[in-house]
Design a protein that fits this description.
The chain has about 90 residues and is mainly α. It contains 2 helices and 2 strands; from the N terminus they run αββα. About 10% of the residues are buried.
Length: about 90
């Protein structure tokens, strides 16, 4: 099993660009834990990395729910654990 690196910080602090740099450098993937990035169509104001800027790095748990769906912390815990196991 490979180590999991968590990048934490306030909004607009450069977390996404650091994550992209590290994922490129070490062959990693990105698992988002942004509570609004899970929703499709919520692109403005969520600071999601647009697909054309993802540099071929897989981004997980982005755009996985419709805005009308409830997306709970429990659901995130299940889905993120599965994604991390698969990586």
């Amino acid at each position: 099993m490979y180590p999991v690196l968590a990048i934490l910080g306030p909004t607009a602090s450069g977390k996404s660009s650091l994550a992209l740099h590290l994922a490129t450098q070490y062959g990693g993937e990105i698992v988002s834990c942004d509570s609004t990035a899970v929703y499709r169509g919520f692109d403005i104001g969520t600071d999601k990395v647009p697909p054309d800027e993802q540099q071929g790095i897989p981004h997980h748990l982005v755009d996985v729910a419709d805005p009308s769906e409830e997306y709970s912390a429990a659901r995130y815990a299940r889905e993120s654990a599965a994604v991390i196991r698969d990586i």
